[in-house]
């Protein structure tokens, strides 16, 4: 298993690169919702739609959450793009017994209030148009016994072009307060996603 690192040069470069990349490819970024910082470690969960996800989460870290960024990444992808290991990525191999080690490692990162950990509880890429999310058991294992100690932040990322050649990125946020049981988290996230979809589909130029 590959543990996350924050290289003295690559990590700051990645942050600047994220801002540059979003400015170049998006008309703008709108963040809807708020983050009430409680001084605790932050677990960020979101919809996993594609290549951009990590950059969007990094942007959120820079603009809102302001913690040291860690994120879970499939081991084969991380081995292919080792650069990300130096920007906070750690590996998970769902087909190996090492998956337990990765979940334990994620849980250990959430002992430090300076940390923010990004995971996608559905465990796979899904279309931006997917209206329903099914969470795997890993999130419950990461959060087991940590209620009140970890701040859980839900995000939904959506894009729209409307009358412009470049899309606008919309990042919706909602603090979660409730049980850390998988079923409760899944239900709350699906409800949040439905709310975001209602807002997003009402947008016009």
How do the helices and strands line up, and which of them pair or pack?
Layout: H1 10-25, E1 28-32, E2 42-46, H2 53-65, E3 68-74, H3 75-80, E4 89-92, H4 98-109, E5 115-119, H5 138-143, E6 151-160, E7 168-176, H6 182-201
Parallel strand pairs: 1-7, 2-5, 2-6, 3-4, 3-5
Antiparallel strand pairs: 6-7
Structural class: alpha/beta
Strand % is 15-25%
Numbering strands along the chain, what is their spatial order in the largest sheet?
1-7-6-2-5-3-4
Instruction: Encode the helix/strand succession as letters.
Output: HEEHEHEHEHEEH
Radius of gyration equals: 16 Å
Number of strands: 7
Q: Largest sheet, if any?
A: 7 strands, mixed
Q: Can you give the mean pLDDT?
A: 95
| Anisotropy-based shape | globular
Low-confidence parts = none
Distance between the amino and carboxyl termini: 47 Å
User: What is the helix fraction of residues, given as a range?
Assistant: 25-40%
Helix count, DSSP H or I runs of 4 or more residues: 6
